[in-house]
Amino acid sequence: MTRIATFNVNGVNGRLPVLLRWLDETKYDIVCLQELKTSDEKFPFDAISNAGYGAIWHGQRSYNGVAILARGTEPVERRRGLPGDPDDTHSRYIEAGVNGLVIGCLYLPNGNPAPGPKFGYKLGWFERLISYGRSLLKGGRPTVLCGDYNVVPTPLDAVVPRRWIGDAVYFPESRNAYGRMLAQGWVDAIRHIHPEKAIYTYWNFSYRGGYDPSSGLRMDHLLVSPSLSLHVRSAGVDVETRGWEKPSDHAPAWIEINERP
């Protein structure tokens, strides 16, 4: 069995105690991190290595940043950055081979305020992901594309859907782009296992400390290639991390995959 998780850490150095505690308690085999908010040279490789994980990362000072961790082994880097825009300076995509799987870790742009230039960049980035995702499927290898998609796909994925009507994560164009990925053949693994369950991976920080339960959204997703979807046995969210001291505003989402024949 292989256990894969994705976690927007909202600052890998500032939240390092949360990350290390979570890694120690869960011992996932493959972990994708987003929103590192650190340059490459300040990525906490030693601490993560001491926790038993090999790592590759694509950092950016103060913003963005993605990483792939693998327990007891070294991820083999396949790509950093999406094709299609050589002038894109955002560190939002990294890809590795890990134990026979292709793992793509992504941090899709938020897009707010929308409409506007940031929303245009979000949609353009999404188009590049859709195009590249098509090529990954044609390659035929078992693949997971996971991360913070900054998309709330359906009303079931928000505690109060109407609250987000004016937000880029819930705009029809964002949801349509996500739907087009599913139409390609990608399978939303959490929704595959829990087709009717209200599940959330993000909550606003509360001014009183803690978080606002009414703000729950599901926008951290693990999309798996069609053949791999047959081996997904369970999926969920480590909601309890959202209540830890100095947490991220996201909670980790995860899947378990049976050993493939």
UniProtKB/TrEMBL annotation:
Probably binds two magnesium or manganese ions per subunit. Keywords: Hydrolase, Magnesium, Manganese, Metal-binding. Its EC number is 3.1.11.2. It holds the Pfam family Exo_endo_phos. The keyword Transmembrane does not apply. It comes from the Bacteria. Belongs to the DNA repair enzymes AP/ExoA family. This is Exodeoxyribonuclease III. It comes from Mesorhizobium neociceri. The gene is xth.
